[in-house]
Specification:
single chain; alpha/beta; Purple Acid Phosphatase, chain A, domain 2; nine-stranded mixed beta sheet
Length: about 325
């Protein structure tokens, strides 16, 4: 897992209040304060816009993408962009082009879109070049204030940038995309008291968003606790560092698929829902948990061997099955 030490906090603390549905509840975990951003809140806003051939309609925390047939839904998965340095932005541009060539119908970002305002604005500006909806859920890095304000500002010109702390469930084709924003361990919040986390009790609210008539996909920077070396939460220290409460919730919920971030060194690793049985890429699976890894161009040794200087994934969902393939930036050695 790669995380920067919090710094220059005064550059964003001038933002006094969150935009969006109002000030989120606060909590305390591991001795530190944080903002709870995983509470489902209906702000009553109704709006719509067109991304031909798609029409996007929002009603409070619900959003529907119309124009996608109930066949195969194709998603592009990103995480860990972190800083808009030139090489990382080249990676992001490359991945967005590959997504377009793959027929991606929406882009999903599982955390890592910058800590400071200028970082986030640069990253959102590049993401806005995608001609499809971009669903962004914050993780351990973001200041919730800066995140909401930046997406609101960028959204005036690029409405396809969707704040997944406000929109919590997306219907597109035969799937429901549900967000779990924030990170489970407040110790890792880079924005400290303006960071975004959740409590175990918030997970029942998340589970209630899953519906039996749709294939549900959870998007979260926070992975569930896995088992063994192949899991999506396997850290460099040879331990699984995911969330126990999230693992228990997902085991009993109608959630077959999960797209996760934050633990970059296990990028590209995937298991079935048991959290231990490997799920090979290019193969259809009845359940699938996938670790996004990082877009950023920072050399990274992967826990199962190989290396990465940036990765992304194309995820396909057909009925109750899913499969994925990983795209590496030039210079990566991939997974062994």
């Amino acid at each position: 897992m790669i995380a920067r030490v919090p710094f220059i906090m005064t550059m964003f603390l001038f933002i006094a209040a969150c935009s969006g549905p109002g000030e989120p509840s606060s909590g305390d975990q591991e001795g530190g304060p944080f903002l709870r951003c995983a509470l489902t809140h209906d702000d009553g806003v109704k709006e719509s816009f067109k991304l031909p051939p798609l029409v996007v309609k929002r009603d409070g925390y619900e959003l529907e993408v119309r124009g996608i047939e109930r066949g195969v839904v194709v998603l592009g998965l990103l995480a860990g962009i972190n800083e808009p340095n030139p090489t990382t932005m080249e990676n992001l541009t490359f991945f967005l082009k590959r997504f377009k060539a793959a027929g991606v119908q929406a882009v999903v970002v599982a955390g890592g879109v910058g800590l400071l305002k200028d970082e986030m604005e640069g990253i959102l500006g590049e993401l806005a070049k995608a001609p499809v909806p971009v669903f962004i859920s914050p993780g351990a890095q973001e200041s919730l204030d800066v995140f909401r304000e930046s997406i609101k500002k960028a959204g005036k010109k690029s409405p396809q940038l969707i704040d997944m702390t406000v929109v919590r469930r997306v219907r597109m084709g035969h799937i429901s995309l549900i967000s779990l924003p924030g990170y489970h361990n407040a110790f890792y919040l880079e924005a400290r008291e303006r960071g975004c986390s959740y409590e175990p009790g918030d997970l029942a609210d998340v589970a209630s968003l899953a519906k039996s008539d749709r294939t549900t996909v959870l998007v979260s920077a926070s992975p569930p606790l896995g088992k063994g070396v192949h899991s999506v939460d396997r850290g460099r220290g040879g331990v699984n560092i995911g969330d126990t409460a999230l693992e228990k919730m997902m085991a009993g919920a109608r959630i077959r698929f999960g797209l996760f971030g934050h633990v970059y060194e296990s990028g590209g690793q995937a298991t079935q829902k048991d959290g231990k049985t490997p799920a090979a890429q290019g193969v259809w699976h009845d359940t699938l948990y996938l670790q996004a890894g990082a877009v950023e161009a920072v050399p990274l040794t992967l826990v199962e061997g190989g290396s990465s200087v940036g990765m992304a994934h194309v995820v396909e969902l057909s009925g109750n099955r899913g499969r994925f393939r990983t795209i590496f930036a030039t210079g990566s050695q991939g997974r062994k």
